[in-house]
Amino acid sequence: MAGKFGKVAVLLGGNSAEREISLMSGGAVLAALQAAGVDAHAFDPAERDLHILKEEGFDRAFIALHGRGGEDGTVQGALELMGIPYTGSGVMASAIAMDKWRTKLVWLAAGLPTPRFAILDASTDWDAVVADLGLPIFVKPVHEGSSMGATKVTEAGQLKGAWELAARFDSLVLAEEFVTGQELTAPFLGERALPLVRIVAPGGNYDYQNKYFTDDTQYFCPSGLPEAQEREIQAAIVRCAKVLGCRGWGRADLILRDDGSFTLLEINTAPGMTNHSLVPMSARVAGLSFEALCLEILSGARLG
């Protein structure tokens, strides 16, 4: 079976702010594919030009890049031009999903729930934003992941400083209303939703440190939600991915409100594959080992 994939490049590292996590994800994927007998090789676009993939006869690419330059449609476009099938979403869906603001606009147009928000810049009326969204407010760069540059604002006087921090990462900055409830993540593989993961972070702060480098965050999979409620959320996740044009695999983050309704936060088209990552955790509950998960993702590699 492994031989049908040909020579496979695992794209990892890159130049984004999430390089460190991408190296961890790519290393884990590379080891799993090699253990399964796949002729897989690490390829870091920050160290080697992408055109080398064509010159060296790679047949497929497993994208384990996170953030800009890897998850935003640019690498996908280059691979399209070279005729190398790749994992995950295509150019358009990758670009939209990387943009938290435009993702929200598409979801709202499709009637899908997402928290109220505002775009911040130097001319923003900070008091008006606080009056509209209330406190706390989440402030985050539009085109970053892994909570890079994100701040939970609890006092009105903190909002401008939070914008200044986020603006170091991105010229577009989003302020989002804080929604109380249970934090969930919902992976999908092909056209099926995998089991939900419920996240309980220290102090409710699921930031960069608590995502990747501490063992204090708790993850529950199975989630413990009633079966009917989980199925309802899973169906919505499949829809929220489809309206963006996503394919292959990914993960959507959402909040389950205290009243039983839910609201969508964002979607990741190349999620983490580290030992703290949530897609592999969910896949295990669905009966897929990490190796089997990587092989299934790789089998879905395509162009267009």
UniProtKB/TrEMBL annotation:
Mg(2+) 2 binds at E266, N268. Its cofactor is Mg(2+); Mn(2+). Its main location: cytoplasm. Mg(2+) 1 binds at D253, E266. It is found in: Cytoplasm. GO terms for cellular component: cytosol. Its EC number is 6.3.2.4. It is an enzyme of class 6 (ligase). Cell wall formation. Belongs to the D-alanine--D-alanine ligase family. PANTHER family: D-ALANINE--D-ALANINE LIGASE, D-ALANINE--D-ALANINE LIGASE B. This is D-alanine--D-alanine ligase. It comes from Zoogloea ramigera. The lineage of its organism: Bacteria, Pseudomonadati, Pseudomonadota, Betaproteobacteria, Rhodocyclales.
